[in-house]
């Protein structure tokens, strides 16, 4: 068992489910000393859940965890910190009301007593200087006042500060998502130095190049399982993409060429930060894709179009009723207290009325119609929305939008973390509804979904940088445009 | 424990059970004497709490932080306005009621204006507004010693077969309010906003309009309540609404409406209103002092909310 | 930048108005008179600030101040040991409320609303009619007349300094404020949120108790309703002082300044301005609205 001793952390058969959703399905995972492990997979593949487990913030429902060869029966955050395992979470973990030095203090119980402020300030300042020379952050700055990029820099630097607790393994979950290319490079170079000095690191990133260049070993996850694990130099971009997406990724055939007549204009919109004349144009019956890296202004434009539908807005023209299908179900879509039927009906209340009152029959009728049409798997549409699995919750949101009077449907990356079966059903439905004249604006982070679109706008830094027609649509083209020059 | 849990699943049932228990305990104590009179008295007094309670319920259902602290000042001012407009003359009753309604609605509208324009939490907005309304009331009501018109005083105290007419009318109103909450676009929108204001906006709910309507409605109910109180107690005064700040919030909470927003019910407001009045009657009957009465009321509120538990954080 | 100075600016504005309307008020004697009730208001505001730092609200602080006042004017004078035990016990109740609110995930507004009845009832039980008398030592402290600087100002400086040090400069103060800023992050860093909530509520109880004692030291006798106005005053003071309801953004110095502003604006200024007493409450409301409006304007410009 020499191998086990050299491991910093090892998970065997880790399992986790949230309600009906199986987030982790028997995962084996380990990190050796002095090793940088790259972890890749689509959104919802289970990477974050796995990392929460390593960091001690989530308890596995099944399986075992061992640190440096010792089984940990009651593993927790405190225990993880004690053992030198730290995590930089994807959602920012700074207290916005505290200064940079004070935020350092919260992670170090031993930073107390006389002079702790000075010590904390020196500690974080030195680490920032080491990782990001010329960072321009003061230890007295209030975290909430910093730009998101600088907050991420503080957070990363904080994870590498050293007081009493040891430091063996740092988990970096999308550490470069808010950094520009220059600072991202500084960070990755530091990670290499850290690993060379004997530290370990888990690097999660959607930027495959980062992982390929900096990891020693790469683990690929899909649908809550590890589907590939090998030395980094055994992978290239194509093999990674294939492993992440699976064989069903290429279903261009299913989306056979539809003949789209140029119908009347439905939406014309220019992003707020667009400087040249490029604008998004959508016509009746079209499916328009919005692509590019996550968070580059696609959602902002969808929200602006949504707002413009009810209140006139400069630079945006909308000619028909609009509905939106949220991607972040919990914060943007679901009404937690309500039944499935009520969640569908909310967008169509005016049509469900009989006189002044909402008719329960009509509401049930609408729900039953969509239950059949979109295949929501439940014994009773009057059950609470949370009795459904994630994919079926998402179908409910689709039913809400498609069951409404909206002629324009905005989709804000709605397939995040949804199983492939559901996806295929929804793709068919979207094409069917488009054929009937509905217009779809579809933001997605999953490139293969763009195959369903008639043409695709690629976004970068809040602007449209390319408009790709159906025939010129390839993953390389999109990646090229989204990285532009700066990548 | 299991039966307790099922009771708690229909929160309004719980408040009625409480009212019934308290009533039974009092009747047992008096040996059956005054059982009917007690119900009559309870109905007469509960009406005033129920009317403002319904308004407060809609406001609280809008979500965390939404509450109307200006109700007492509103009730005080509206009662003075109503009495002044009526001027002791039966022919002006309807005009006076409308004036009280308009006063209250205007206060509610101003509350929302402050919340919206200054983007301050409703607690502070309605609190600042209530300071100003109080002053207006003190200044306006100074030297005002106007009694309600005899017809109005009689109407607010009118009973048929031992049932106060005002209570019957309030039942009609609450049935309407319950329909508005569960079966009208307005109520559905309030519930949606209370659960998740962003999701409500994205689902096409007119968030600003609904919030404005809700604060205005709550203000209007406070106004009408002020006029009725002045009729029932035969005179308006500045402090007439004071107890309705805590009472309006208490009936909403005891009635099973979630302070986290998005979940409300109207029957519970009635149950809780009756419960509070009957509790008071019971403690008075037992000869308990005012101090003990307050302590028990407070402990019951804390007890109810602890038993009902907080909302589970939805991830 | 300007935003942080706003509390001090509003206090300065009120002072300038007073000086302009009645220059004689700006004197040792004048301040003693005008700031008569500033100390208990400042202490109650600080008490409220602690719960607000943890994203909670205490609607019972006013009746709690009244309850402490009644204990102070009776037991604390007649049987000091019992008095002290009762006061410590009531602080313990606050700590327990903090635990209850955290463990059962209860809305603090409702729990403290219920407690406001409880404190009021207990106060009436202890002192059914206005009366009692403050302990002599307390009277002596509150009528202290230091050289040059009026006592209320000295006391305000002291309160602000002590709480500022405790909450803003100590290492555990960081954790307390952090629990209001990003509770999930603190839990992930291994801190107990139960403990922070208990500590914050206990501190509210402690400063509420100090407020009640100071109040009785000034008024010399008690009344069960004596503190009722303090709930709303304390919330307004925290907000005037630049605090926010959520996010752990509070400032002890700002809260004390806010309390002083309210205390000053409450009566002397308005009397000087020949505002009839009827409109003095309105002036308080108007000051709140004006300051908040100014804050919105300023933060919009700073965006």
Q: Which two chains have the most extensive interface, and how many residues on each?
A: B-C, 51 and 43 residues
Extended strand count of chain A:
21
Query: What fraction of residues of chain C sit in β-strands?
Result: under 5%
Strand content of chain A: 15-25%
Termini separation of chain C comes to 12 Å
Oligomeric grouping of the chains? heterotrimer
Rounded to an integer, what's the Rg of chain A over CA atoms? 24 Å
Give the distance, in angstroms, between the N- and C-terminal Cα atoms of chain A.
43 Å
H/I helix tally of chain C: 16
InterPro entries (chain A): AAA+_ATPase, ABC_carbohydrate_import_ATPase, ABC_transporter-like_ATP-bd, P-loop_NTPase
Keywords (chain A): ATP-binding, Nucleotide-binding, Repeat, Sugar transport, Transport
Protein name (chain A): Sugar ABC transporter ATP-binding protein
Organism (chain A): Mesorhizobium dulcispinae
Characterize the structure shown.
The complex is a heterotrimer of chains A (487), B (315) and C (303). In chain A, a hairpin with a 2-residue loop joins strand 4 and strand 5 (70-71). Chain A has 487 residues and is an alpha/beta fold. Chain A has helices at 2-6, 47-55, 77-82, 100-106, 116-131, 148-159, 181-196, 208-214, 237-245, 298-310, 329-333, 340-345, 349-352, 360-374, 390-402, 420-435, 475-483; strands at residues 7-18, 21-32, 36-40, 62-67, 70-71, 85-88, 169-173, 200-204, 217-222, 225-231, 265-269, 280-283, 287-292, 316-318, 322-325, 353-354, 357-358, 408-412, 439-443, 455-460, 463-469. Chain A has a six-stranded mixed beta sheet, with helices on both faces. Chain B has 315 residues and is mostly helical. Chain B is 75% helix and 1% strand. Chain B has 14 helices and two strands. A two-stranded antiparallel ribbon of chain B has the order 1-2. In chain B, a hairpin with a 2-residue loop joins strand 1 and strand 2 (163-164). In chain B, helix 13 (267-285) packs antiparallel against helix 14. The radius of gyration of chain B is 19 Å and the shape is globular. Helix content of chain C is 75%, strand content 0%. Chain C has helices at residues 2-21, 28-34, 38-53, 61-73, 75-78, 80-103, 108-126, 136-142, 151-169, 171-181, 183-188, 193-219, 230-240, 252-266, 268-272, 280-302. The longest helix of chain C has 27 residues, at 193-219. Chain C starts with a helix and ends with a helix. The mean pLDDT of chain C is 88. At the B-C interface, helix 5, helix 6, helix 12 and helix 14 of B face helix 7, helix 13 and helix 16 of C.
């Amino acid at each position: 068992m020499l191998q086990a001793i050299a491991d910093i952390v090892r998970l065997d058969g880790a399992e986790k489910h949230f309600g009906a959703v199986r987030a982790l399905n028997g995962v084996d995972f380990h990190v050796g000393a002095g090793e940088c492990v790259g972890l890749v997979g689509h959104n919802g593949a289970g990477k974050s859940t796995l990392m929460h487990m390593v960091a001690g913030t989530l308890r596995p429902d099944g399986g075992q965890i061992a640190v440096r060869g010792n089984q940990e029966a009651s593993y927790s955050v405190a225990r993880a910190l004690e053992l030198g395992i730290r995590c930089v979470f994807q959602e920012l973990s700074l207290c916005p009301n505290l200064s940079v030095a004070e935020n350092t203090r919260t992670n170090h119980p031993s930073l107390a007593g006389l002079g702790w402020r000075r010590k904390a300030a020196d500690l974080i300042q030195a680490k920032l200087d080491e990782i990001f020379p010329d960072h321009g952050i003061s230890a007295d700055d209030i975290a909430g006042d910093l730009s998101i990029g600088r907050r991420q820099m503080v957070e990363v630097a904080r994870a590498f500060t050293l007081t009493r607790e040891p430091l063996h393994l740092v988990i970096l979950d999308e550490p470069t998502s808010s950094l520009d290319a220059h600072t991202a490079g500084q960070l990755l170079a530091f990670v290499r130095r850290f690993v060379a000095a004997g530290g370990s690191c888990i690097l999660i990133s959607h930027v495959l190049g980062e992982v390929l260049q900096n990891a020693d070993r790469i683990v690929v996850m899909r649908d809550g399982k590890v589907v590939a694990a090998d030395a980094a130099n055994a992978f290239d971009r194509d093999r990674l993409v294939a492993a992440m997406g699976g064989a069903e990724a290429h279903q261009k055939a299913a989306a056979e060429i539809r003949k789209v007549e140029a119908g009347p204009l439905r939406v014309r919109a220019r992003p707020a930060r667009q400087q040249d004349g490029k604008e998004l144009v959508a016509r009746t019956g079209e499916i328009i894709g919005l692509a590019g890296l996550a968070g580059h202004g696609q959602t902002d434009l969808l929200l602006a179009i949504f707002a413009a539908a009810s209140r006139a807005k400069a630079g945006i023209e909308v000619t028909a009723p609009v509905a939106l299908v949220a991607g972040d179900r919990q914060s943007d879509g679901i009404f937690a207290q309500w039944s499935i039927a009520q969640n569908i009906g909310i967008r169509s209340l005016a049509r469900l009325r009989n006189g002044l009152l909402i008719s329960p029959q009509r509401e049930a009728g609408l729900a039953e119609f969509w239950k059949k049409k979109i295949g929501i798997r439940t014994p009773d549409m009057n059950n609470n929305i949370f009795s459904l699995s994630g994919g079926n919750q998402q179908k409910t949101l689709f039913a809400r939008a498609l069951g409404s009077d909206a002629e324009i449907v905005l989709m804000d990356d709605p397939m995040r973390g949804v199983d492939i079966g559901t996806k295929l059903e929804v793709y068919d439905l979207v094409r069917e509804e488009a054929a009937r004249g509905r217009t779809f604006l579809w933001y997605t982070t999953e490139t293969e979904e763009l195959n369903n679109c008639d043409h695709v706008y690629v976004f970068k830094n809040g602007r449209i940088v390319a408009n790709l027609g159906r025939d010129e649509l390839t993953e390389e083209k999109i990646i090229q445009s989204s990285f532009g020059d700066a990548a | 424990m299991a039966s307790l849990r099922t009771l708690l699943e229909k929160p309004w049932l719980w408040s009625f059970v409480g009212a019934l228990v308290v009533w039974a305990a009092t009747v047992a104590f008096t040996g059956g004497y005054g059982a009917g009179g007690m119900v009559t008295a309870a109905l007469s007094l509960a009406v005033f709490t129920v009317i403002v309670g319904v308004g407060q319920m809609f406001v609280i259902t809008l979500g965390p932080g939404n509450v109307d602290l200006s109700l007492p000042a509103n009730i005080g001012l509206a009662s003075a306005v109503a009495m002044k407009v009526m001027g002791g003359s039966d022919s002006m009753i309807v005009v006076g009621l409308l004036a009280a309604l308009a006063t209250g609605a205007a206060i509610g509208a101003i509350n929302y204006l402050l919340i919206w324009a200054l983007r301050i939490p409703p607690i502070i907005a309605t609190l600042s507004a209530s300071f100003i309304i109080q002053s207006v009331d003190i200044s306006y009501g100074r030297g005002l010693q106007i009694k309600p018109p005899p017809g109005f005083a009689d109407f607010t105290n009118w009973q048929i077969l031992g049932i106060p007419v005002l209570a019957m009318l309030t039942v009609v109103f609450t049935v309407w309010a319950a329909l508005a909450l569960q079966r009208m676009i307005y109520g559905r929108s309030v519930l949606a906003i209370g659960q998740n204001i962003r999701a409500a906006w994205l689902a096409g709910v007119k968030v600003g309009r609904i919030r404005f309507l809700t604060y205005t409605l709550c203000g209007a109910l406070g106004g009408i309540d002020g006029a009725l109180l002045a009729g029932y107690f035969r005179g308006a005064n500045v402090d007439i609404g004071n107890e309705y700040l805590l009472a309006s919030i208490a009936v909403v909470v005891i009635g099973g409406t979630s302070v986290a927003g998005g979940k409300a019910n109207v029957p519970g407001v009635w149950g809780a209103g009756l419960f509070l009045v009957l509790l008071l009657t019971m403690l008075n009957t037992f000869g308990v002092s005012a101090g003990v009465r307050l302590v028990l009321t407070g402990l019951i509120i804390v007890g109810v909310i602890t038993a009902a538990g907080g909302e589970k954080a939805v991830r | 930048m300007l935003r942080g100075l706003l509390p001090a600016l509003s206090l300065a504005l009120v002072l300038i108005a007073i000086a302009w309307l009645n220059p004689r008020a700006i004197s040792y004697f004048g301040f003693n008179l005008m700031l008569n009730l500033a100390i208990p208001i400042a202490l109650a505001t600080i008490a409220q600030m602690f719960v607000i730092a943890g994203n909670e609200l205490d609607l019972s602080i006013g009746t709690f101040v009244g309850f402490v006042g009644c204990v102070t004017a009776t037991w604390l004078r007649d049987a000091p040991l019992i008095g002290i035990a009762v006061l410590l016990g009531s602080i313990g109740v606050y700590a327990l409320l903090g635990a209850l609110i955290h463990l059962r995930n209860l809305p603090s507004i409702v729990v403290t609303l219920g407690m406001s009845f409880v404190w009021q009832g207990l106060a009436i039980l202890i002192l059914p009619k206005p009366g009692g008398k403050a302990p002599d030592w307390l009277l002596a402290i509150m009528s202290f007349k230091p050289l040059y600087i009026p006592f209320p100002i000295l006391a305000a400086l002291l309160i602000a300094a002590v709480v500022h040090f405790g909450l803003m400069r100590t290492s555990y103060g960081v954790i307390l404020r952090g629990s209001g800023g990003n509770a999930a992050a603190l839990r992930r860093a291994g801190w107990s949120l139960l403990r922070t909530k208990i500590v914050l509520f206990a501190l509210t109880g402690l400063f509420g108790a100090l407020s009640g004692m100071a109040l009785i030291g000034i008024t010399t006798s008690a009344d069960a309703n004596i503190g009722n106005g303090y709930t709303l005053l304390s919330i307004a003071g925290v907000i005037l002082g630049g605090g926010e309801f959520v996010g752990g953004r509070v400032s002890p110095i700002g809260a004390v300044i806010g309390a002083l502003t309210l205390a000053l604006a409450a009566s002397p200024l308005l009397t000087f301005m020949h505002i009839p007493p009827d409109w003095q409450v309105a002036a308080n409301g108007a000051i709140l609205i004006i300051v908040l409006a100014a804050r919105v304007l300023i933060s919009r410009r700073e965006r």
